[in-house]
Design brief:
Elements lengths: L54 H11 L3 H22 L4 H11 L24 H15 L3 H8 L18 H24 L1 H17 L1 H6 L6 H27 L9 H18 L3 H11 L17 E3 L2 E3 L5 H16 L6 H7 L1 H4 L8 H22 L18 H21 L3 E2 L4 E2 L3
Antiparallel strand pairs: 1-2, 3-4
Helix pairs in contact: 1-16, 2-4, 2-5, 2-6, 3-6, 5-12, 5-16, 6-7, 6-15, 7-9, 9-10, 9-15, 10-11, 11-12, 11-16, 12-16, 13-15
Length: 443
Amino acid sequence: MQRSGFIENTQPILSNVSTAARVLPESSSIISSIAPQDSGGVVPANPCSDSMLSPSTVQSKLKNLNPSYEQQGKEQLQGIENFLLQSIDNGSVDIVQSVQKVLRTMKLLDDNNKWVIEGIDNINIESMDKDTLKQFISKATQSLQHNDFLLYVLSKLPKNPDILTNRQDVKESTEDLFTNLIVKNYVIDQLTKVFENNPKMFQDAIKHWQSVRNDNKWEIVKSWPITDIPKILFFWVKLFSVEKPVGDVVQQKIEQNELPEDFCKFFLQLNIFEAQIVDHFYLGHRDNAHAAHILNQNPIDSETNPALGTHKPYIKDNEVLVTSPLPKLWADLYQVWNGTFVSFDKDFSWVGILAAPEVSGYQDNPGKYIVKRATQLYLNLISTSMEPLSGEDTVHYPEHDQIPWLKELGGYVSETAKVYEEMVNEAKKELPVNDATNTPHFT
């Protein structure tokens, strides 16, 4: 198992971002009906829904950069979807066996394919087939087409979806490679859903993985090549910096306490900052690092502010909901920034979990995005960390270091980040001003 990779950044939380940075008010020209009112700590069910954001401003700004971005981006998405659906149809993968293999790797099934976590057997493995995967892909595509920033970035890429197969040293057929990849992302997506509704079960799983890791430290360590020390360090820092906030979320769900006003804020910024450092100094992708900087300038808000479309962190129906200013657009930008960051890792599953419906389907309530994103990231980190212990032939991910267009992605993402920043600045101008200090008034 010689894979470590630049794992994406998850839900973030780090630097000492200035208070002013979180002032992303959405003015009436940006938000037509604003989000939650603070009514004794009770927040409406769907604060900050996509319908509250006027897309016209975003779209007009992006059309100034590429008038046909929306059509071209959707055509790209459709081409990728068709490619993946054909891979599933033409592949020879036994879906049930592939699902079992992923779960054995994650140490959730034993060698006899029996569940090791009590209650998790409500995932019906035997019913999974090619149609299950195709529905999964189509649902992901439907969610992704609502991200204008993503459509813009896709519109700038080569128009041939076969670029996905332009790789070397792939032991499986192209169809089987991508089918196995889709299976892994589907399994993680389903686990996200199950664990979200069963926090105690998730807590048991976290303790189980920690125990396995502690009992097999040396075997895990010696499986990572010494030449990849920077990647190894980044991977393990990422794992522990994600495991802590994910565990905190689970504990809060179990206890059902009122969430602290700064809940998850530090770790979210920390995770973004980690990737920003790697992007800027290790990979040399300064444009993409700039997008991370803009995200971190606009962290989770600790107060309910209709002008910003934000609300205090709270729990509703086993979902922990937190928002950054202009929450839907923030999540859109995070998706394209993080997708670009992880596209440089040869393990395509880091990109795939961003597209999975449990993460990408945040349009109705962007407040759920960050926690779900963190959960899926954590599950993929667990899968990767457990591979040396699995005894399985893991998916042979293709090398793609020489694809020229990959290096151009950061520039396109930076353009979308500037659009987001412009909308923030425009919104700030429309905030009421505190006469005494001549500064925007947020309450």
